[in-house]
Design brief:
The structure is a single chain. The chain contains eight helices and ten strands. It is of the alpha/beta class. The protein has helices spanning about 35-45, 90-95, 105-115, 130-145, 160-180, 190-195, 215-220, 225-230, and strands at about 1-10, 15-20, 25-30, 50-55, 60-65, 75-80, 150-155, 180-185, 200-205, 205-210. Strand 1 and strand 2 form a beta hairpin. Helix 4 packs parallel to helix 5. A six-stranded mixed sheet has the order 6-7-8-3-9-10, sandwiched between helices. A four-stranded antiparallel sheet has the order 2-1-4-5, with helices on one face. It has two domains: about 1-75 and about 145-230, Rossmann fold, CATH 3.40.50; about 85-145, no CATH class. About 35% of the residues are buried.
């Protein structure tokens, strides 16, 4: 179970939210740009520290004190793949794993390579692969450690619809296999709905509405949220 309270003071408002997600569960964060959604995710991930609060994942306390990033069983994926261009696809994916890998770990990496369609570029430098392949590599690198918690901060931006569908299908398949907790942000409600049946609506750093998508669409918290829910 993920239990988190994040208090983070910003120039224009203070983010103050509490979330609780059961093992294998998921939650979408939805709201206007600048509402504090990314602050929530980056604080849970450990990229930035809350001013107050607590973050627990099962019996593991992530904050306070801040647990070092390499000890957090957390996958964090943003719009930029952040690959090392001079390293091969394989070395990008295993970056952060120990140099000595068990047979089970080697089998898992092979499973990722085949399932993500990366066999043909496995030994290619990351600088030479396409943008779509780079997103797949970033996803595979995140999954290589079998995270217990996955945080997605608009990872589908700038991609064509077909690739977005493929990546969402891959994420849903991996979630069934690994059973990680999922928190996701995107500016398109349609994408969030495919990934998570429930959402928390964020405005000015607060949760102003929470429930299934049908409830939120039927009675949005305000006119601005209703406008965001309109199909693009």
């Amino acid at each position: 179970m993920l239990e988190a309270r994040i208090v983070k003071r910003r120039r224009d408002f203070t983010v103050d939210v509490s979330v609780r997600i059961e093992d294998g569960g998921c939650l979408a964060l939805f709201g206007a740009s600048g509402a504090g959604k990314s602050t929530i995710l980056s604080s849970i991930a450990g990229i930035e520290q809350p001013d107050e609060g607590v973050v627990r994942l099962g019996d593991l306390q992530l904050y306070p004190p801040p647990l070092p990033l390499h000890r957090r069983p957390v996958g964090y994926l943003t719009q930029e793949p952040h690959l090392f261009p001079h390293l091969t696809v394989e070395r990008n994916i295993v970056f952060g794993l120990g140099s000595r890998r068990t047979a089970a770990e080697a089998g898992w990496l092979k499973h990722l390579r085949e399932s993500m369609g990366l066999a043909s570029v496995w030994q290619a430098p990351a600088a030479q692969i396409s943008g779509g392949q780079a997103r797949r590599v970033a996803l595979a690198r995140m999954l290589a450690r079998r995270p217990r918690l996955v945080l997605l901060d608009e990872p589908f931006g700038g991609l064509d619809r077909q690739l977005v569908r493929e990546l969402i299908d891959a994420l849903l398949a991996w979630r069934r296999e690994i059973e990680f907790i999922l928190m996701v942000i995107d500016h398109q409600a349609e994408i969030l709905e495919r990934l998570c049946p429930h959402a928390a609506v964020i405005a000015q750093g607060r949760i102003i509405q929470q429930g299934c998508w049908e409830q939120i669409r039927r009675a949005p918290a305000n006119a601005a949220i209703g406008e965001l829910l309109r199909p693009l």
